[in-house]
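Standup notes, structure subgroup. Blocker cleared on the iron/sulfur cluster input:
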Amino acid sequence: MTPGEYPVTSTSNVRDSLAAIEALPLARSVRIFNLCGDQERVIVLSGMRRAMPRKVELVSGPGCAASICPEADVYQALRLTECHPLTLLVGENLLRLPLNRDVGGRRSLLDAQQHGADVRVVSAPVQAVMVARAEPERDVVFFVAGFESLLAPLAGMVLEGLPDNLSILLCGRRVEPLVEQVLNGEAADIDALLLPGNRCAVTGTQGWERVSADYRRPAAVAGYTYSNILSAVHAVLQQHCNGEARVDNFYRGLVRPDGNPLARDQIDRVFELVSGDWRGLGEVQGTAFRMRRTYDVFNADRRFPDYRGELISEAGGMPDGCECAAVALGRKLPLDCPLFLVRCTPQQPYGPCMASDDGACYLQRAV
Ligand code: SF4
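Run returned:
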């Protein structure tokens, strides 16, 4: 049996899984870090956290791409809508994302849209191509934030050739180096990793197997149902009790150790990894996907280079008083933030974690 091919535990239903977790001989509290906004949604909305034994803590990590999208990227998108007669396409998750402070213009893309900018929401990358084809005389910029699961279809589209009037403003991130940086830190208070099934379907598990082995942290790939996540939680706890560290795979229909080689190859051909700023967390080497120079013509950064430098924004900068940085590293809960549902609401998010429906604070407001 090779890593990544361990069998699903014999716990076949939720009650059995909870009983099996309860029965594990945990000598101390165990903090399990999840890296996926979609899994966090299941965990929050199902009440899974409350169902855990006292010694098991499910910790929300930097799994929401919008929440870590730097202020400078939002500012650049805003300036594009102010200075060019173009159409800006965004995922719903970026629409409410606020600047950290008032710099005398619009504070978010929703704000810009409400004041007449042509900002439209799209739900899939291919929709951007359709909009650009429908209006060939108009410049269209697709502002997108995401991880490998989103970059794979984007890379495929670029390789096929985008319409001449379409370019991409990208905030693409790779999370492994950030997790390694956290695990290397003195305050590394993470005992195990819950890995995102959709991203691992692209990247595979081999990179995570190295992280798991190097840092002696149990890990498991999970899908997006209550029972599947619960099985993955049980698996990492079982590893913890046995003193083991490997990657168990509970999304085996889609995730293989080497992932999807075609998608990985397409991502490598279109994007390169450079140092990247994570809002609230700062600059991390090798974490930002940037379009290779070959594709400059589709890169909004190159086509409209004039605004990125205008906003003096420190790496990792956050709105004053916002606790998203600590929330994204599982060191605080949304409820610990004094602004939660007081000054910061889904209608008027003050910090990034409240702006996207994958954000930890946005999800927490529902329970
Ligand atoms: S409630 Fe708002 S201000 Fe507080 S941590 Fe969450 S997003 Fe930031």
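Discussed briefly. The mean pLDDT is 91.
Next: hand off to the docking folks.
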